[in-house]
């Protein structure tokens, strides 16, 4: 990514409706003591991906993650999946994310729930990871590589930081139908998703770096149902989003997300879980 593209994606997530402040407000509204939280308390609010903790556990099983694993979560966001893996399995997890505010918020949330000894988050570019070669036993990611047009560089870095015999398991948004030029432009501008991949694009990129695909599961039907619900959930956060980021940002996001969900329901976009062996 160029500097401008990185800044655009970071700004998109700096003003995302799901953020540290929103998570803590929801917990307070439940009457929970912010000074005595666990990841079980956070799980309903900090999983900024499709399918909640069930999806995280499906990835963990696919990636063969165990207590002894050191896991890298690429594009880790608010850190919900990383914390959940550490909480449930006792493994070490490192999260990498481009947006500094989300890295800082994720680290604070990990400290709040007593997981800072197992989970840490660092700021960095997934196409130029700040880790030594062969650092991790497993690598996961959820619905985030759609923001990264340099797919070959991303996959090459994933292969580089995985130990020999390690496993990669990720989910992402892919093109499964036909997108018009106008739809592509709106996705790039509104959702910061330039040049979305197809399943074949990922298959080629993985094969190029010697990762053998073990499974590719079509999740499109399940995600369509989830996305319709998420659109309504985001709209339910209108007041807090406007208070924090302004009405213009809320309207801008609502229009972009509505278009995105429409492409899913029309069958132009879909989702896959892809698993590969290094």
The mean pLDDT is 93
**Structural class by SSE content:** alpha/beta
Q: Report the major sheet.
A: 7 strands, mixed
Total of domains: 1
Number of E-state strands: 7
CATH architecture: 3-Layer(aba) Sandwich
> Fraction of residues in helices?
40-55%
- What integer value in Å does the Rg equal? 18 Å
In CATH terms, what is the fold-level topology?
A: Rossmann fold
Residues in β-strands, percent: 15-25%
Can you describe what's shown?
- This protein has 278 residues and is of the alpha/beta class.
- The protein has one domain (3-175, 194-219, 270-277): Vaccinia Virus protein VP39 (Rossmann fold, 3-Layer(aba) Sandwich).
- Helices cover 49% and strands 19% of the residues.
- It is built from twelve helices and seven strands.
- The two termini are 25 Å apart.
Task: Write a brief structural summary.
By secondary structure, the protein is an alpha/beta fold. Helix content is 49%, strand content 19%.
Tag the structure with descriptive keywords.
alpha/beta, 278 residues, seven-stranded mixed beta sheet, 19% strand
């Amino acid at each position: 990514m160029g500097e401008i593209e990185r800044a655009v994606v970071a700004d998109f997530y700096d003003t995302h409706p799901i953020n540290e402040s929103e998570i803590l407000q929801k917990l307070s509204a439940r009457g929970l003591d912010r000074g005595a939280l666990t990841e079980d308390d956070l799980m309903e609010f900090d999983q900024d991906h499709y399918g909640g903790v069930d999806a995280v556990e499906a990835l963990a099983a696919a990636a063969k993650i165990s207590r002894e694993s050191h896991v890298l979560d690429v594009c880790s966001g608010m850190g919900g999946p990383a914390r959940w893996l550490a909480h449930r399995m006792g493994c070490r997890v490192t999260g990498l994310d481009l947006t500094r505010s989300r890295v800082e918020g994720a680290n604070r949330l990990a400290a709040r729930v007593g997981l800072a000894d197992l989970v840490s988050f660092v700021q960095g570019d997934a196409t130029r990871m700040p880790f030594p070669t062969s650092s991790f036993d497993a690598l996961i990611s959820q619905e985030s590589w759609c923001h990264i047009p340099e797919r070959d560089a991303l996959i090459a870095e994933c292969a580089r930081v995985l130990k020999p015999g390690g496993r990669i398991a990720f989910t992402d948004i892919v093109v499964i139908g036909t997108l018009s030029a106008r739809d592509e432009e709106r996705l790039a501008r509104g959702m910061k998703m330039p040049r979305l991949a197809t399943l074949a694009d990922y298959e080629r990129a993985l094969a190029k770096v010697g990762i053998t695909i073990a499974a590719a599961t079509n999740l499109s039907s399940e995600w369509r149902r989830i996305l319709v619900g998420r659109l309504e959930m985001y709209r339910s956060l209108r007041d807090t989003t406007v208070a924090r980021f302004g009405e213009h940002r809320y309207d801008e996001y609502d229009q972009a997300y509505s278009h995105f969900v429409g492409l899913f329901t029309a069958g132009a976009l879909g989702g896959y879980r892809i698993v590969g062996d290094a």
